[in-house]
Amino acid sequence: MTGDRFRFPKVEFGPEERALREEVRAFIREEKASGGFTPMADSWGSGWSPEWSRKMGGRGWLGMMWPKQYGGGEKPALHRYIVTEEMVSAGAPCAAHWVADRQSGPLLLRYGTEEQRRSILPRIAAGECYFAIGMSEPDSGSDLASVRTTAVKVDGGWRINGRKIWSSGAHRSHYMIALVRTAPRDMKARHAGLTQFLVDLKSPGIEIRGIRNIAGERHFNETVFDDAFVPDDMVIGEAGDGWRQVTGELAIERSGPERFLSTFPVLTELVRELGPEPGDRDAETVGALAARTMALRRMSLGISRLLDEGEAPEVAAALVKDMGTRFEGELVREARNLLPARAASQSPDLYGKVLADGVLHVPSSTIRGGTNEVLKGIVARELGLR
Amino acid sequence: MSDRIVLDTAERILADLCPPDVVNDAETGVWPTVLWETLEESGLTLAWVREELGGGGAETGDGFDILKAAGAWAVPAPLAETLLAGWLLEQGGLAAPDGPMTVAPVGPADTVELEDGVLSGAARQVPFARQAGHIALLAAGRILLVEREACALVPGISLAGEARDDLAFDGARPLRSAPAPEGLDRDRLTLVGAAVRAAQMAGALSRLLDQSVQYAQEREQFGRPIGRFQAVQHALAELAGEAAAAEAAADAAGEAVAARDFGPHGIAAIAAAKARAGEAASKGAAIAHQVHGAMGFTYEHSLHHRTRRLWCWRDEFGNERAWSVRLGRLIAAEGADTLWPFVTGSHAA
């Protein structure tokens, strides 16, 4: 079966997992009732709330998989999966901690120095320390290996020059993990000579310029490095090993429930608007969208299980992200065809608001974290076509 | 849960004994004798019947593995139907006979009555009826075993060139009869039938992917294999996704049947599986044909062994629309705040 190529093992939840899920649901219910948050689409990408992040940290829901000595909970990947899928499906504002909890923390845990781990991971786990991604550049998008930002060795550290772009929330983050060229480009070894740096965004020589997105939000940024000094102890892992590290980071970045549930709050509010006895056409659309959600979730959960088994399911993650992000857009399209609303971000009714969030944010789903064209290429390579 | 041995046995037998010419011959009316006898001797045909009743006594999950393999190899015989018939007889504690069987009724509009031990009524488009020795029938609140010879038959044919015959039961007397247990009604039979077809579709899509990738690697145009072209690569990546989604959905349905979960969550899993696998069948078959070009449109090429079956199975035991409507109604009845718990199967009802 396809399992021979893309394995999505079955996941079963035990009493501990069920209890965790109920705990998270109860928390979300109470917060929603008391006005702690209003559901939104793309809540993990756009819903910036340090207050929410601290609440989650206080409950032990950040850095869940990390060792206790770094503020973690030493839980399996499946536990983190449960917390994240409950948050994203509910449309809770998780953007502040998202990158740090999902990929920067795990990267530091794996490749960072003891000092980096001790000083930073507990703060991430507490929901107090936020990270921006420093991969793309004005001339390097899908072709990440073409990055031109350079770091030159100087006494006691490195001088960084260049520009990083599309870094979500950089203007509100504490650190950026920047992929930087530390050796000249070699067309025969395109992936060599790259290094990851842990950059304190308050350092001199760094200017963060906001870029307004189509939703009118200042969400992402251009970060300019002008002779910014980064001390030696802020190199992550081995100098020159950046490509291998960053691809591992991308595999984690691509595999989670946020890659198919970003617009789920639209479906929830659509069901509310349609009421308990919808017509056939309405019921059909809701049912078809639910059926697709269920299949995607089973696949995505399977990946979480593989992560727990120590595998790096890079291709399976690419497959699910390609399908899942396309689905996020289709959900919005189906909803607005079924029930047009005065979609407006300031809409008084929740359906109109989440629909507006959905319409305006969906174009980024199939781009961020690797375009769907790149993802399909990864799948095609696995099929033996490249 | 599932025992890999059963799947391996099925795969080995089918790889050996179900090549394209056997499938083509079957469409002209040649019964695949060796294939069927080997399947039967291996206990695969009655996997869902416990040993005391003459079956193979396999786990329910193993039966779904057999169904995926049967779909992958386009078995031109009632393997799925015999499994399903065995499941139905087993529910009534009835012993299963040897030989191919089928199940009736399979359509929602059919009515079959039983009065004073004599049957009346008809069932339409019964799969493989003319090849079946016996029919497992659900009628008048009873599970019945009927000899095929006791019924009048009007032949019909499916999109895949397989028998879908109309049966008239008037005057027939069942060989065996037992009251259907609580909850076993036409709807439940349809649910299990839908799970069966979803598993077959998942298997067929998986093989369709292999076949299409292989063709794209071998077929050369503009001086290189067409699989080198990005447009073709992306189409095949989508086919891989459809196949994987169909399998994920079908596995969930199989697990619901194995757990005898026919409550709202089990129904949701099965409805989602039939809807999603049916959608994947449409999308996947279209991609496979596009990749194969004119060659795949010929009878000579074996691509149609799977695509025609997919087109047939997506309609049987309820199409995508029927199951989506049902799932949508279940969700609406539960309400918006239970949508997510419902989707995750973790609704603390």
Task: Label this structure with key terms.
heterodimer, A: 386 residues, alpha+beta, Butyryl-Coa Dehydrogenase, subunit A, domain 1, Butyryl-CoA Dehydrogenase, subunit A, domain 2, Butyryl-CoA Dehydrogenase, subunit A, domain 3, 3 domains, four-stranded mixed β-sheet, 12 helices, 8 strands, 47% helix, globular, B: 349 residues, 2 domains, four-stranded antiparallel β-sheet, 11 helices
Low-confidence stretches of chain A: none
Strand order of the largest sheet of chain B: 1-4-5-8
Tell me the name of the CATH homologous superfamily of the largest domain in chain A: Butyryl-CoA Dehydrogenase, subunit A, domain 3
CATH topology grouping of the largest domain in chain A: Butyryl-CoA Dehydrogenase, subunit A, domain 3
What structural category do the secondary elements of chain B indicate? Answer: alpha+beta
Q: Which overall shape of chain A is indicated by the principal axes computed on the Cα atoms?
A: globular
Largest sheet of chain A: 4 strands, mixed
- What's the rounded overall pLDDT mean of chain A? 94
